[in-house]
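We close this part of the discussion by returning to an individual protein. The amino acid sequence and the backbone structure tokens for this protein are reproduced below:
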Amino acid sequence: MISTDIILAGNSTHKNVDHLMVELQKKRINNEIQDTLIFVEHPEIVTIGRRGMLDNIQAPDGFASSSVDRGGGLTWHGPGQLVGYPIL
């Protein structure tokens, strides 16, 4: 039987969850924890992945953005959106 831990993080900033993912990834690589799924809702933010280009994009005043070291382009996260992060 395969077991998976589930973390229901509620509403949390992308920065806080990113730190949590890094810590869990280290533990998973060392087999200190089993596979884990994080479910969270973020305050409004756009994440910019390694393929993201901001040449022609200007965020409105007060609109948060954050660069991430994962693949992908631009991703919007916000209220009402359930985001899942697997740590496998």
